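#onboarding

Welcome to the new folks! Below is a worked example of what a typical request in this channel looks like: someone posts a single protein sequence, and someone else replies with the predicted structure as tokens. Don't worry about understanding the tokens yet, we'll cover that in week two.

Example request:
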Amino acid sequence: MDDPINVHGTSVQVIEKLSDKQLKCKFMHHQSVGLNWGHPGDKISFIENSVMKSMGVGVIATFRSIDNENFILVFKETIPKELEIGDALENLTWNPDLFVSNSYFKSCRARGLLVSTPGKVVIENNTFESSGSAILIAGDANNWFESGAVTDVLIKNNVFTELCNTSSYQFCEGIISIYPEIPVLNETTPPFHKNIRIENNEFHPFDYPVLFARSVDGISFTKNSITRSTRFEPYHNRKFTFSFEASRQLKFQIIHFQKTFWGKIFS
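Example response:
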């Protein structure tokens, strides 16, 4: 009933600053309550929640649960002075690498694969027929509290059929949708994700949007082919093949783009 594979961390919210080394924190999503979220020695990133920027890294000295929703962290170092109540924490130590190969994503509600981890990610030689976006790269500290700004993602040699994005679900702005939730996003907001490479894939879209990318530093779309399918009528409100918001360092090289493809290419 949801993404077949969903890889992300869990952000927690700062509820109270008890001292210059102690914080009271809370699980903000009901499905994460009760986790043993931190361990002595874990590296923690302090996240300013409006622009999703890290204010620095600390190391846990002790973790103590108060109840299923609340816990107290003591750090070895002094907490950043600019950290405020309402900001978030991310556990950097417990973020995995991800390798997905020779798999078939179909007959699922919502997206095919959700990825939000700073570990090394390789997605290759798969077929996607998901009803929403085939691949969603997300991340936030305000709503779902699913952490994990990506730093090294390779999407290579996959086939995205015309069944991708046939239904309208949350965050499905393209067959590949890079959609971190950042409340304050403008020309001064630092990029959230970085280093995403999309290479040697086949896209068979029936609708306009193929790639949507928000707040990315370094994204390449090279040696891919795009062949329009006429199996379904377009419905998506986004009328561009490629859309970018607050992103930089873009690289494109398309080896095949069907001449009968309609609509505008970039926004």
